[in-house]
Structures are given as C-alpha cells and as structure tokens.
Design brief:
By secondary structure, this protein is mainly β. The chain is 14% helix and 38% strand. The protein contains 6 helices and 20 strands. It has helices at residues 71-76, 117-122, 142-150, 200-204, 211-216, 220-232, and strands at residues 18-20, 30-39, 44-52, 58-65, 69-70, 93-96, 99-100, 104-111, 114-115, 154-157, 160-163, 166-177, 182-189, 194-198, 248-256, 267-275, 282-285, 292-293, 298-306, 312-317. An 8-stranded mixed β-sheet has the order 7-6-13-3-2-16-19-18, with no helix packed on it.
C-alpha cells in the first residue's frame, strides 16, 4: 500500500502514499455496478454505485484505510501533501445517497505487530509524528524522549529523536445495503502527493538511474517535450514563483485501484479521469488501455466489466 516516489535526492523531496477506495470484507452478494474516479495531484473524487443482489438487506462495516506509515522512515523522508489534522490528514469526506456520513476515525500505533498506542499516549506525544516536514518529537521534553527510548519506541542520536513505531489510520462506518437496490457512495480526499525535481540528467539517464522513464512509461514524444521545456528555462533562477529554478517540479500521485476486486464480480462500468491541472503541465503514467484527451488538462478511460490489474501511479511535471 505504501510506495515512495523515488529515493530521496534532495532535502525538499517528499514522498507519496498510495490510497484507494472504500472496502469491506469480500462479498458474494454486493457488486460494484459503477465507479467514476477522478484523480489530480490535489484531489481525488470517487463515485461508487453498489448493488445488493441478494434477497436480504445487508449491513456491513465499510472502511477507508490509509496506508501504514513507518515513522522511522518518514523521520528522514517527509510525507508529501497533508492537512494540519494529524488524524484525518487527507481531509476525507464521504456521503451515502447524497447524505453526509458520520464516520469513525481510528488511529493507532504498532511496533513489531504489537499495539503500543497506550505507551505513546502515556508519554504525552502524538501518535502521528510524521506531519509535513517537522518531526513532532523535536518538541518533546527530555523526560518524554527518555520514556519512549526506554520502551524501545525511539532512538536518541545526539540532538535527534527518531521514532520507531508504525501509524495505522482507518476511517469506518456502518453501511446499509437494501436488498435488490443500488446505493451510491461518494468520497473525496486530498492525496498525499510526493514531490521532487526533474532535470536534464533525468532525460539522459540510463540503467538504474532511468527511474522516471521506467516507473512512469515516459515515451520519446514526452521526453522530447520535456527537453524543450528544460532548454527554455535553463537559466531561470530559483525564486518564490519558481522554487525549482531551472528544473521542473515533478509530483507523484497514486491510487490503489485493485481494491475494486473485493466485490462480487468485476466493476460493471469503470470511468477514469486524470487531471494534470494546467494545459502546459506534462502527465505520464503506465496504463493498460487508451487514455483519450478530453480537455485542455484531462484524459479519460472507460471500460465495462472491468477487473483492475494495475494501480494508478502518475506524475505531473510543471
């Protein structure tokens, strides 16, 4: 569930998290009649139509799980775009048949499979210490740090306190599926989009350094376009408007589409829209099937009886 953009190559690089749609235990009676998915680097909108084919109403615990976050890893490599809420850090919202759903947010800490939430709370520090580019343990007292270190939940290295637990966040609610009827569930969230820079060396890279071209299937026309753009901005200084200077900002957004296989049969009708936000931006990803350009910044894909075999991992260069 968790995938990094690339190995960190600059202090201001951030890492993406791959999230997907709502899910529950594999069902033999509920099918996904339709999924309408729209992805951009700043927002994901999904509309599901579920049909209960059985003769009985079904009440199920539906969940939207976020990827596990290894705090030790993200101490050195910060997360990408997040909100200021340490629990709902993706601004998740959900409706059922047009009505807002009051969901429960659970966030717990684990260490080697053991729930250590109570120990961390007793130490007086937040479970989620991986918000933005700041390690929340930097502001902890010496006594708090010592307590965590004694419990094996942190390593103290000089002035640095490195957390060692895994954050597990899950939103869930009870959903009613009437017999023989469709239920429309819509949700939206801010994806944890990762960012770094893309320069001339990335176009000419070979072998193991050829990470962007391999991971996102950049073809020759795309590389030629990027070469023209980089040539045009070769002497551009870094400033507030162009923090990347003579390089391009590259944003990675991921969506775990294979959760669609958790329902009865394939997705009846699947529709995907990818939005690169501005016409001058460049979009690239590996995809099975034809993506049709439908607007200045959008590309779409439609398929019936669709069984996803590939997740969405796209980059937008700007």
């Amino acid at each position: 569930m968790l995938a990094s953009l690339t190995a960190v190559r600059a202090d201001d690089s951030t890492i993406a998290l791959g999230m997907g749609g709502v899910r529950f235990a594999k069902s033999a009676d509920i099918r996904m009649a339709a999924e309408d998915l729209r992805i951009s680097p700043v927002k994901v909108d999904v509309r599901f139509a579920f049909v209960n084919d059985s003769a009985k109403d079904i009440d199920a615990d539906v969940a939207f799980p976020l990827p596990d976050i290894d705090t030790g890893e993200f101490w050195a490599a910060p997360l990408g775009t997040v909100t200021n809420d340490p629990v709902n850090f993706v601004d998740f919202k959900v409706t059922s048949d047009g009505h807002p759903v009051a969901f429960t947010a659970d966030q717990r800490a684990f260490m080697k499979g053991k729930d250590v939430t109570a120990i961390i709370k007793a130490a007086g520090v937040p479970i989620n210490v991986s918000m933005g580019n700041i390690n929340a343990l930097d502001n902890a007292s010496a006594a708090q740090k010592k307590m965590l270190a004694k419990a094996g939940l942190a390593q103290i290295d000089g002035d640095n306190t490195i957390p060692q637990w895994t954050i597990r966040t899950r939103f869930h609610w009870k959903q009613h599926f009437p017999a023989g009827k469709a239920v429309v569930i819509e949700h939206s969230y801010q994806p944890v989009t990762g960012g770094t820079f893309f320069g001339p060396d990335d176009i000419t890279a070979k072998g193991s350094d050829d990470r962007f071209k391999k991971a996102f299937c950049m073809d020759e026309p795309t590389l030629a376009r990027l070469h023209r753009i980089l040539t045009a901005i070769a002497n551009r200084p870094a400033d507030d408007k162009h923090p990347s200077g003579s390089m391009l900002q590259i944003d990675t957004t991921e969506y775990v589409l294979s959760t669609g296989n958790n329902w009865k049969g394939p997705i009846g009708k699947f529709h995907l829209t990818l939005d690169k936000l501005k016409p001058e931006n460049t979009l690239s990803l590996c995809w099975d099937g034809e993506l049709k350009k439908t607007g200045p910044a959008t590309f779409e894909f439609t398929r019936e009886n669709y069984a996803p075999a590939r997740d969405v991992r796209m980059v937008v260069l700007r």
